[in-house]
From TrEMBL:
It is found in: Cytoplasm; Nucleus. It comes from Pichia kudriavzevii. PANTHER family: ARMADILLO REPEAT-CONTAINING PROTEIN 8. InterPro entries: ARM-like, ARM-type_fold, ARMC8/Vid28. One of its GO terms (cellular component) is GID complex. Its main location: cytoplasm. This is Armadillo repeat-containing protein 8. One of its GO terms (biological process) is proteasome-mediated ubiquitin-dependent protein catabolic process. Keywords: Cytoplasm, Nucleus, Repeat.
Amino acid sequence: MSTEHLEYTSGRILLNEKLLSTDYVKQRLRRPSEDDDLYRSLFNEFSLTKNMNEEVFLHYFDQLCTLIVKSKGSINPDQFCRDAVQFYSSMKGITKSPPNTIGISKYLFEVLRTNKTSLPSEKIMISFLMTFGSWTQCNSFKDSCYNLLVSRIQQCCFSLDSFSNPLSQRSLMLDKILERSVSQLGPILFLYAYQLGNTNVYSNQDYDMPRTLKNFLLYCAKSTIFLLKWSTSVLLVNYFSAADYSQRSHNFSNLLPYIIDLTYQEAGNTTIIKVFTKLCSLPLDMYPLALISKILKGAPDINKVLVEVDYVSFISNVINDYYNEEEKYIAEGTSFKLSLCLNILAHLGMVNDKNKLRISSGPASTLVSNTLVKHLEILKYMRTSECKGNIDIRIANKAIYCSTNLTFAACTILRSLSRSASLLRSQFKSDNNVQLLIEILSVNGEDLYVPYQYDSEEKLKSLILNILANLVLELNSPKRSINYSVLLGLVRGFLENGKSEELVCASLSLLRNSLFSSDEFFIQKFKENVPATLILKYSKSKNDKIKLSSLNIIRNLFACSLDVSNYIFDEFKDINQGPECKFIDFLKGELCHSQNMEIVLSLCYIISNLSVWQPVNKIFIVKNEGLMMIMKEYLAKPINQFPNTDLAWSIKSCISWIVMNVLTNGSMEESERICHVDLEDASLADPTQRAKLLISWGFLNSLGDMIHSCDDVDSRLVLNKAFVLLNTIGTTLH
């Protein structure tokens, strides 16, 4: 191509005004001998350029789409569709704005419907629709896919009316027709499956596939013809994933045996998979193994069925076949398949500890460890000066994307294994994975010389924090081997940044679990590295999940010791400029306004833990009539007015403990009364007076009523103990 068509400026390719002129493009396209030269030259130049001018591409793309539609067949769309897919594939991760493909998509559907094109041309058009279909008008695309499929089935010489009821047995004549027609039906089935699976664009909850088509697809899913079995299975899994949720588990259970069989056949049909994946631009999540992963995500309980057929051994064999630790690089398709294997094993490990032990001693263990090492190496290289000067952005972007996905899958396995007490005491104590996780956690994606993939990094780091949260919860886990100063420094950074609610939740979960066992070592590290003011700030969050986690941290801190309780009071004074009793007012306000019963329970536990320590705390709690009356209302509230029965009895039991706590530990010394309590409240230093006040507010009657209606043995025992203690102390004569 001559230089009049292209200008090179600072490494960018720019099209001059002449080339962008509609008239000029029309003139070139009228000369068939030059059409291919124009397309090929432009797309080759674009695909080889490191820094792409997206605005120019979108403008040119739109003009060509318009011209092809207006040509009404005089311009063959094959070449454009092929090159557009090739070009866009090279631009993944860089192109942010969607091209306008509505007009040409409608045109291509019409061409496909007439069935006058060759099969190779048809696959090229379907490849284009697969690549750009998510940016078209969703409902019209879905209807076009459905109409095209029904039309193609009819063209194959049979009617869907014969499938008004499921066929009880195979039809030899129908199977022969399907065998002859599979090359025509397969691509259309994949296209329809693609649109049904595009749940990011539209909701398919209200879509009910016609019964005749559903029966036809179920018949095809049982076929011995691999391509037919594969394409219909993808379609059905995507449909059941998006359709009626209440029937999802049932539908998947019926379909699962055929999907399992499909994955067993995958190894013997790799050529078919590669050919159709390339020709039709099939997404990687249409791999047979990906269907198992989707089913497990939609109906996790199905993992028991896979365990029964020893799917752990099958997946382990797949890993052995595809993973070679001597190879320096892993291809995108292989990386995706290995990610699927790890995700599936993570689900199977949830069934029981026996499976966890099998997985941890199998090939997945080596893959997980090597994946963490390799990902850390990639991250470190991507922030070096050597990388900055030599990197191809598109290649680096794909490398980070594949590595992050595989690492996420590896961490999914680790999270599953970290829920096993025996593995916490053995594997996590002996291997280097914990240190690798912390190092990955410490890398800031914004420091890399590649486009920042914030969502992927956020999800990966949140998952790593959840793994570490499981590790510190186990009393015999390798707590002392963790560099808590580094880890808590990272957690503090995530909390101070606060942009990602997912990272904040995961960080708070780690702190909550670490404080669960009242470990003095960790408490000291916490006080040195994480200001309690951060936790108190998040306890006022509008996000219930964040609020609950932060309140549970406070709950665990108050359960530690008197010194820690005083530490929280001091931190609270720093942000509220008030005495200790203001903290009680804060708890009262939260308890009064919360509609989330888990938050209510957490607040009650904080008050319960607070009431264990200094007698002065008991007085501050009891003298706050507003707080006590809110708790009395929860104590007296009928069980059927709570959203959850177990949670209701937990709240009532916790309030019963509060009643017992404020009545025990004797009375205060005279010096304590003078220092901490106003003269008008001095009488509350006597437990008897506190008991009489609670009785006057109706606590005794409420406890008695609940004992009679309680059918939970443990809760009735606590309620009864509180009733007896309150009645005994409150009716004592002096």
